[in-house]
Amino acid sequence: MIFPINKFKRAKHSFRHSRVGGVTPLWGFHRPCALRGGNPDWIPASAGMTKHRCWAMLGILLIPLFLGAENPPVKAGRIRPIYPITIYSIIDSPNAEVADYGSFAFSTRFFSKGGILPSLSFGVFQRLMLGATLEMENYIGNDSVDLQEPKLQIKFRAYDGSQSLPAIAIGYDGQGYHFDKATKKYAEQERGLYAVFTQEILLRGLETSAGLNISDFNTDQIRLFINSSLVVSGAVGLFLEYDNVQNLKYNRFNAGTTLFMSPSVQMGFHVRDIFHGDHYKNSSLERTSERIIDIRYMTNF
Question: Considering Cα of 158, then 160, then 164, then 169, what sign does the dihedral take?
Fold first, then answer.
């Protein structure tokens, strides 16, 4: 487009008077000249100075790209969490993720009859996570609080995984659910010693884990579990879990959703044992579905 010179007189005046201390502005235009057949337009006052300014502006524009670039992977194909908060367990069952070194996680589960289950977890090494839980029944309400024995949790990430091989973790979880005072044991046994394999499949953000565990070393009975998690836009997580797989009538199917409230806080709403049977394997307690709320907070120390 060709502009007549009279339209630029005021612009020319403003450009010249925008010079501070005799220095031409960054864009470097202040005088008319002929361009394209003698029609006036604007060109740099100094070709050499403008070239330097162009390089300077290009450098300024490229700075955000370098500042916003992700850190390079430790090695090719490594699976990295894409969640706002590292999800190191789904509802009841674990996956192969661990808390980062130097991180601290606090979570509280609110379950039936006013019970709460707080837990603490620490990333003590790059691949090792330690934690402890303390179940308190009747904490909400007017009944006496029934405090159970604290339980230990430990998880070690043995392999980071690749595009073709799953990440692998081994661990121990001593926390059971629904303590039976008659037998002095949990109606839902603790997970005990376990190994879990996690891989992202089909969609970005869809992770599936499968594992096996043994909690009763007298009978050496091995149980299986499988879970899936899908995080949508880094804001909502959808969880499915098939746990305690050994005998069909004692298997448990759990489902829920999690809201990522902030980069450090997530809140989950889950339903456990949806297709429950009539009773537990080693307890006379009534077996029903259970709605729970799980709040997690993670930070560094």
Answer: positive
H-helix segments, the chain: 9-17, 47-68
Structure tokens at 289: 């579905």
Can you tell me the distance from the alpha carbon of 96 to that of 129, in angstroms, rounded to the nearest whole number?
A: 11
> DSSP assignment, residue 148?
P
Amino acid of residue 20 = V
Q: What is the pLDDT of residues 96-153, one digit of tens each?
A: 999 888 888 999 999 998 999 999 999 998 899 999 999 999 999 888 999 999 999 9
Per-residue pLDDT at 74 exceeds 80: no
Helix (H) or strand (E) holding 167: strand 167-173
Which residue matches tokens 């007017």? 142
What CA–CA distance (Å, rounded) separates 236 from 132? Answer: 27
Domains along the sequence of the chain with CATH: 5-68 (no CATH), 103-300 (2.40.160.40)
Query: Which residues share a beta bridge with 281?
Result: none
